[in-house]
Amino acid sequence: MKVYQGISGGIYHVADKRLGRGGEGSVHEIENFPGHVAKIFKENKRDAAREEKLCKMVQNTVPEEMLKCVTWPKDVLYDQDGFVGYVMQRVKNISSLSELYSNNKYDLRTRLIAAYNLCAAIDTIHSAGQVCGDLNPRNICINLDQNDADKFQVILVDADSYHFITDEKIYRCEVGLADYLAPEMQKKISGGITLRNAPLPTFTKATDLFALAVHVFCLLMNGSHPFACAREENGNVTNTMEQMTEMSGKESVVAPQPIDNIKNGFFPFYDKQPGIDIPAYAPEFASLEPSLQRLFVQTFDLRKNRMRQRFAVRCHISKNHFSRRTYGSNMGMVRCLKII
Question: Are 230 and 291 in contact (CB under 8 A)?
């Protein structure tokens, strides 16, 4: 057991046993403080810039509604030597959103609910004047316990890496997986320029909406990434989603074709070209509602997006689950609300 003090003046008794760990540190239970955990950074991650950002995040009042959908820092922790970590909400029954992408036990209705809840969570953060930044699947958790009262609730984690905005300063999000970065971001970080030193603006609400659209597409299209395709070369077909799956455990996915497709605004589900096909496991793009197809095209195809308008897709399920379109054995209505 270790004892830390917060900037609030509170004293926290933090268990030595780790609940989880990652590249930056580990997560621990806090004694007599149910519903909360402490993230303790590795010593080489306890720099002054990170401390300043977290202190500003804690001091920044955010709406109660936002605290329900993101593990926003609640206090900053110190020991006798200085800054060590922060306190955040504990997330229960967590699974990665990507578990819904290709797991056949979850039907379309469940995926639509997940898509709607993800849209609602990001909209709540944007309404509070904030930007997420790194919206890769590992940072998006969903409660898949169907017996829980909060089933299918979406919680966004690793908020300490968020692109945090104050009146005085922008605290950058310095990480991101290329598969979810908007084309304007992809073009900025070439030639040795990274998210840490790229000219601002980098992450914006619009780049969040691009990543959101990628996730919604994956949920509705059997896990297929919108920029993945099968390409025939010298008589052989290469499937870039297989490359992405093989490297999904690494720090960054380097399958070149989907990333190049994002940069170039080539949306293979819409822009049909000889010798290029969509992944075999993906349903036909035409199976989606026409209005939803249009929103995806406006978001992913740069030729249709000359005015740099970007739309998020908010998915709703009708109460009686009846619709004009049928997806396999599931029936559902998708209505789309545009958010500029």
Answer: no
